[in-house]
């Protein structure tokens, strides 16, 4: 695990965008795993800028998003389908058929999880997975006490996650209770992973991910066992890390 501490949220996004852009330059038909939420917004902005200014080409790129709320269709402004279109896909030249997000409206969620896994495998697996982290150290929607062996599956959101995500809704009661999420195994099978975090409210979770015991109680801690992870932080999110953490 390598840790990169940047000066600001924007700088965090820039460093993440450099890694994603580098991946696409080296392998134009890369398979990217993508996250939603506030954290990766500055990375998406930078990638859109690189696409516009120097023509970073997404025409052969395939993407798989981590998760979607159950019961939300793509036209729902709170859905992760909608989020991705709004903040990223509609601004770049990715082919719609190369964009994949779990179907939150699937009747059979188990079958949907299997379909998603098969699709990832058929594309040759994920080359680079982008992750945010929850205040409870979740990755994707893999909440504490997760099964490390899980693949894409239905999850019940933690109260802490529901509360944290209520900032995107009118009130907490509108936040869905369930989601479909890539599992820890799906994430761990990616060739490379970048984990982004900003803000003091993520400092504890970052500490657990980087320095804590590897335990299902802190799902992100499993990343310590992955061979190629870069953790990109702003100063606030790095606040609790000891000085001897290997940084680049
Ligand atoms: C989003 C996702 C979540 C978020 C995490 C942090 O697709 O899988 O794990 O990355 O909840 O969310 P923000 O960035 O909004 O703080």
From TrEMBL:
<comment type="similarity">
    <text>Belongs to the glucosamine/galactosamine-6-phosphate isomerase family. NagB subfamily.</text>
</comment>
<dbReference type="GO" id="GO:0005737">
    <property type="term" value="C:cytoplasm"/>
</dbReference>
<dbReference type="GO" id="GO:0004342">
    <property type="term" value="F:glucosamine-6-phosphate deaminase activity"/>
</dbReference>
<dbReference type="InterPro" id="IPR037171">
    <property type="entry name" value="NagB/RpiA_transferase-like"/>
</dbReference>
<dbReference type="Pfam" id="PF01182">
    <property type="entry name" value="Glucosamine_iso"/>
</dbReference>
<keyword id="KW-0378">Hydrolase</keyword>
<feature type="active site" description="For ring-opening step">
    <location>
        <position position="143"/>
    </location>
</feature>
<feature type="active site" description="Proton acceptor; for enolization step">
    <location>
        <position position="67"/>
    </location>
</feature>
<feature type="domain" description="Glucosamine/galactosamine-6-phosphate isomerase">
    <location>
        <begin position="30"/>
        <end position="227"/>
    </location>
</feature>
<comment type="pathway">
    <text>Amino-sugar metabolism; N-acetylneuraminate degradation; D-fructose 6-phosphate from N-acetylneuraminate: step 5/5.</text>
</comment>
<dbReference type="GO" id="GO:0042802">
    <property type="term" value="F:identical protein binding"/>
</dbReference>
<dbReference type="GO" id="GO:0006043">
    <property type="term" value="P:glucosamine catabolic process"/>
</dbReference>
<dbReference type="GO" id="GO:0006046">
    <property type="term" value="P:N-acetylglucosamine catabolic process"/>
</dbReference>
<dbReference type="GO" id="GO:0019262">
    <property type="term" value="P:N-acetylneuraminate catabolic process"/>
</dbReference>
<feature type="active site" description="For ring-opening step">
    <location>
        <position position="136"/>
    </location>
</feature>
<dbReference type="GO" id="GO:0005975">
    <property type="term" value="P:carbohydrate metabolic process"/>
</dbReference>
<feature type="active site" description="Proton acceptor; for ring-opening step">
    <location>
        <position position="138"/>
    </location>
</feature>
<comment type="function">
    <text>Catalyzes the reversible isomerization-deamination of glucosamine 6-phosphate (GlcN6P) to form fructose 6-phosphate (Fru6P) and ammonium ion.</text>
</comment>
<keyword id="KW-0119">Carbohydrate metabolism</keyword>
<protein>
    <recommendedName>
        <fullName>Glucosamine-6-phosphate deaminase</fullName>
        <ecNumber>3.5.99.6</ecNumber>
    </recommendedName>
</protein>
<dbReference type="InterPro" id="IPR006148">
    <property type="entry name" value="Glc/Gal-6P_isomerase"/>
</dbReference>
<dbReference type="InterPro" id="IPR004547">
    <property type="entry name" value="Glucosamine6P_isomerase"/>
</dbReference>
């Amino acid at each position: 695990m390598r840790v990169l501490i940047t000066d600001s949220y924007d700088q965090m996004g820039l460093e993440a965008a450099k890694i994603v852009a580098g991946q696409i330059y080296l392998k134009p038909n890369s398979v990217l795993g993508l996250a939603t939420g506030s954290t990766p917004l500055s990375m998406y902005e930078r990638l859109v800028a690189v696409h516009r200014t120097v023509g970073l080409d997404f025409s052969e790129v395939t993407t798989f998003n981590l998760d979607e709320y159950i019961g939300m269709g793509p036209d729902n402004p709170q859905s992760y389908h909608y989020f991705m279109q709004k903040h990223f896909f509609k601004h770049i030249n990715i082919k719609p058929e190369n964009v994949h997000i779990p179907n939150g409206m699937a009747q059979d969620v188990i079958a949907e999880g299997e379909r998603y896994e098969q699709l990832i495998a058929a594309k040759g697996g994920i080359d680079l997975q982008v992750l945010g982290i929850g205040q409870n150290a979740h990755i994707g929607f893999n909440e504490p006490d997760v099964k490390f062996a899980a693949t894409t599956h239905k999850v019940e959101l933690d109260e802490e996650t529901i509360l944290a995500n209520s900032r995107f809704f009118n009130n907490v009661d509108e936040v869905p209770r369930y989601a479909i999420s890539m599992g820890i195994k799906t994430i761990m099978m990616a060739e490379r992973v970048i984990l982004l975090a900003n803000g003091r409210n993520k400092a504890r979770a970052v500490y657990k991910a980087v320095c804590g015991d590897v335990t299902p109680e802190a799902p992100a801690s499993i990343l310590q066992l992955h061979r190629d992870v870069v953790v990109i932080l702003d100063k606030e999110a790095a606040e609790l890390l000891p000085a001897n953490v290997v940084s680049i």
